[in-house]
Structures are given as C-alpha cells and as structure tokens.
Write a structure and sequence with these properties.
Oligomer: single chain
Helix content: 40-55%
Low-confidence stretches: 59-64
Number of helices: 3
Structural class: mainly alpha
Order of helices and strands: HHH
Shape: globular
Mean pLDDT: 80
Distance between the termini: 35 Å
Number of domains: 1
Length: about 60
C-alpha cells in the first residue's frame, strides 16, 4: 500500500505524491483501516468484480 500511495502516511496527507496510484481520503480511517480498504480494492479488482460496475459506466460516457 505504501508504494501504491507514493509513501507511508499514518494519516491522510493534504496531497498525495504524483506517483501515487492509490489514494484514500477518509480522515476517520486510520492506517490499519486504510490497509483493509486497499486490500479490498486490490483483491476485488484482481478478481474482476470491478468490471461489471465499470463496464456500463464506460459505455455510457464514451457514447457507445
């Protein structure tokens, strides 16, 4: 998670680095919570469960 966020942040930073590929801005979520959120999104993306939610949105926004 630290690599994906561009560094280790115990709390939500005012701005994530440009090289961050993952960010999470819920200030009520401590570091352990952020690890859980990152793991959930990573596993669900790798499992393909995000595709059904993104597919229809992409076709609606692309004009297809």
């Amino acid at each position: 998670m630290d690599v994906a966020r561009g560094g280790r942040f115990e709390t939500v930073p005012p701005r994530y680095p440009e090289n961050a590929v993952y960010s999470y801005d819920d200030e009520s979520c401590d570091y352990a919570c952020q690890v859980t959120e990152f793991t959930y999104w990573a596993v669900s993306s790798l499992a393909g469960s995000r595709e059904c939610q993104e597919g229809p949105m992409k076709s609606r926004t692309s004009g297809n």
